[in-house]
């Protein structure tokens, strides 16, 4: 088990926050979403923890480029806990960190986007716009102050999460396995919820027997609601296990099949 004696400094926190605010979304893509941005945000610190050009650094870099997607307003909470654990446990924390990221990114995405991407802009934006319409220039300053407050919140949460992460791995060492299992299970639940809510495919084919038309989608729902979305996700998962298959190729295969079946009237949204 490789551990590091390196401890993050104020300069490290400043660098992480700066990268998080300015570059976190620049590497966004449909395959891994914020994965590359997450790695770029903490890469200098990973090099200090694991050393340059070491097997441990390469292994943890591969771990951090996996799928990741959460609210921009809460991502450094996950980053702070992650770095605290890796700083303490080294490469042995890889599974714990992966499970923690998978389990927390979903809840933080929902909370962060609801509050900071919807509620706050609605309240302060409406207030500022109403004042601007009435000729009051103070409206723009209200909006600016609100955005500055949000950025200060994002800046401060990293060090707070890091300190809590240190507490977690020093006082709750025996519970790290339970944390990993719980976070992984939560991630599985989140994936299941996304399958049921985000994959919207229905069977539109309705064969007729005499004067009776069979509603195939209704019959499938009687067996198991959302069976078709689950089958599609299972098929994609099986497809990704094949040699030389990538996520991009799988996406194009799904698109082509869906377009053909939709044109034939077999499926619909």
UniProtKB/TrEMBL annotation:
Transmembrane segment boundaries: 108-132, 138-155, 176-203, 223-240, 247-267
Q: Name one Pfam family in it.
A: EIID-AGA
Q: Which residues form a coiled coil?
A: none
Instruction: List the PROSITE patterns.
Output: PTS_EIID (PS51108)
Listed GO cellular component terms?
plasma membrane
Any idea what this protein is called? PTS fructose transporter subunit IID
Q: Name one GO biological process term.
A: phosphoenolpyruvate-dependent sugar phosphotransferase system
- Please provide the record's keywords in A-Z order: Membrane, Transmembrane, Transmembrane helix
Segment forming the signal sequence: none
Q: What is the lineage of its organism?
A: Bacteria, Bacillati, Bacillota, Bacilli, Lactobacillales
């Amino acid at each position: 088990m490789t551990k590091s004696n390196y401890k993050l400094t104020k300069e490290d926190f400043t660098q992480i926050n700066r990268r998080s605010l300015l570059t976190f979304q620049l590497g966004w893509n449909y395959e891994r979403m914020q994965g590359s941005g997450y790695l770029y945000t903490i890469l200098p610190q990973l090099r200090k923890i694991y050393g340059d050009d070491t097997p441990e650094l390469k292994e943890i870099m591969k771990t951090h480029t996996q799928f990741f997607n959460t609210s921009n307003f809460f991502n450094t909470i996950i980053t702070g806990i992650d770095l605290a654990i890796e700083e303490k446990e080294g490469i042995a924390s890889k599974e714990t960190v992966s499970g923690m990221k998978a389990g927390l990114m979903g809840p933080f995405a929902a909370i962060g986007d609801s509050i900071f991407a919807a509620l706050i802009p609605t309240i302060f934006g409406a207030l500022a716009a109403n004042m601007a319409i009435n000729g009051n220039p103070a409206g723009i300053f209200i909006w600016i102050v609100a955005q500055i407050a949000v950025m200060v919140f994002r800046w401060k949460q990293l060090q707070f999460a890091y300190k809590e992460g240190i507490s977690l791995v020093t006082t709750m060492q025996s519970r790290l396995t339970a944390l990993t299992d719980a976070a992984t299970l939560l991630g599985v639940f989140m994936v299941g919820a996304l399958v049921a809510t985000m994959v919207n495919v229905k069977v539109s084919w309705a064969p007729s027997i005499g004067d009776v038309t069979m509603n195939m989608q209704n019959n499938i729902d009687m067996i198991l609601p959302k069976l078709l979305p689950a089958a599609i996700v299972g098929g994609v998962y099986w497809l990704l296990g094949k040699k030389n298959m990538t996520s991009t190729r799988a996406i194009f295969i799904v698109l082509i099949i869906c377009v053909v079946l939709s044109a034939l009237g077999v499926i619909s949204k």
